[in-house]
Amino acid sequence: MPESLGIAVIGAGMAGKAHAAAYRTAPTLFDPILPKLRYVSIGDVNQELGAATAKRFGYERTDSSWQAIVAAPDIDVVSVVVANRLHREIVEALLAAGKHVLCEKPLSDGLEDARLMAAAAKRASSVARVGFTFRRTPGIAAIRELIQDGTLGRVLHFSGRYWTDYAANPQGPMSWRFKGGAGSGALADVGSHLAYVAEFLAGDIRSVNGGRLATEITRRPLPLGSVIGHDHAEVSDVYEDVENDDYAGFSTEFEQGVGQIEVSRVAAGHANSLNFEVFCENGSATFDQRRPSEIGLFLSGGSSTTNGFRQVILGPGHPYLAGGLPMDAPSVGFGQNDAFAYQARAFLDEVAGVDGGLPLNASFDDGVHNMEILDAATRSAENDGARVDVAQKEMAR
Ligand SMILES: NC(=O)c1ccc[n+]([C@@H]2O[C@H](COP(=O)([O-])OP(=O)(O)OC[C@H]3O[C@@H](n4cnc5c(N)ncnc54)[C@H](O)[C@@H]3O)[C@@H](O)[C@H]2O)c1
């Protein structure tokens, strides 16, 4: 076990802060004790934001160039939390310098770049992981356990939606999220999460069909200042074209079972709602991110007069809650930021060679496979909903 680990986060925006905070929380959760963590640097081209974030989360310094983090001998572990099109260059340089990398999803903005990143990860001696945070959500992890232990059994049908409304206002500012080709909008941004969750529960997607992409707000005003995350900054009267999808939908064929995935960034009133039903051979389960530590559960075979969906509030004994909260008492609740802490803890455990019992984070090959699904959905949409095969995971890995 290393004596200490130096940590940096590149990108101090919306998700960057979640990573910065997660590294501070991670050593306080679960067993065993991690090596000493040194909170070294927050990297951001926006110096003011970088400095404020470093101060707020207790990091020693801020670096306005990510190259300085690559070159820093006191940094071992780095989260890459910037626009998708910047992931490859930064991640490859970090891996070549021997840093352990936790890269945000989607792995990149293009499938070819993602494949090159996975090849770089294979050559590297350090750990390379992708941040599919939702697998750490107690409700989702609990449903997966019920599927795998046979309580719910084999998935017959998955129906999922990820509704967000960060782009519902046509006067919302232009940002990196609206640039890039077909499939780089809502599909890449939130569809990457939902496709990962669908496979986490129902197994490998073999093909997709019925792909549909739509851009409903085609121009957006440029911001007057910098835009962080989904901020609605002040805007100018200069407009630019939106280059990607506000809405995406597609059907999936799993190894066994079928599914439907729909995502949107213009779903007014649903700021952040990943929700799904999963219908299985012995019953079904429902999940809504707005209540992340509870699930709806229906088990077949009960009394025809009293059986029905029941609300199960997750508590100690369910995945991530025992030991995963400072006060892990029944019904104390869980929030999405906690999932970043569990993700950071699993990453640090792996880097430090500590067996904390948490499942590993997704590999770069998983990140490539996830992008292959999104690419297949895009090609389906471009070909009137045609069926498109997804490369088998065994071949991709
Ligand atoms: N797992 C999740 O739930 C989740 C949530 C949101 C975003 N994300 C992912 O995180 C990544 C970042 O998204 P975000 O919403 O935080 O973006 P953001 O726009 O809020 O923040 C990006 C930050 O990167 C900085 N930046 C730009 N160029 C840079 C450079 N060359 N070097 C260093 N910093 C630079 C910007 O100044 C900004 O502060 C994306 O890949 C996104 O898909 C994941």
Task: Give me the secondary-structure topology.
Elements: E1 4-10, H1 14-25, E2 36-43, H2 47-57, E3 61-63, H3 66-71, E4 77-80, H4 87-96, E5 100-104, H5 111-123, E6 128-131, H6 138-148, E7 155-164, H7 186-202, E8 205-214, E9 219-223, E10 235-241, E11 247-254, E12 258-264, E13 272-280, E14 283-288, E15 294-299, E16 310-313, H8 336-352, E17 362-363, H9 364-382, E18 388-389, H10 393-396
Residues 10-16, 43-46, 49, 66, 81-82, 84, 86, 104-105, 131, 133, 189, 228-229 line the site of nicotinamide-adenine-dinucleotide.
Low-confidence stretches: none
Number of helical segments with 4 or more residues? 10
The CATH topology of the largest domain comes to Dihydrodipicolinate Reductase, domain 2
Count structural domains: 2
Q: How many β-strand stretches?
A: 18
Class by alpha and beta content? alpha/beta
> What coarse outline follows from CA principal-axis ratios?
globular
Distance between the termini: 28 Å
H/E topology pattern: EHEHEHEHEHEHEHEEEEEEEEEHEHEH
Largest sheet: 9 strands, mixed
- CATH homologous superfamily of the largest domain? Dihydrodipicolinate Reductase, domain 2
Helicity level: 25-40%
Average pLDDT for all residues = 96
Strand order of the largest sheet: 16-15-14-13-7-12-11-8-18
CATH class of the largest domain: Alpha Beta
Radius of gyration: 21 Å
Bound molecules: nicotinamide-adenine-dinucleotide
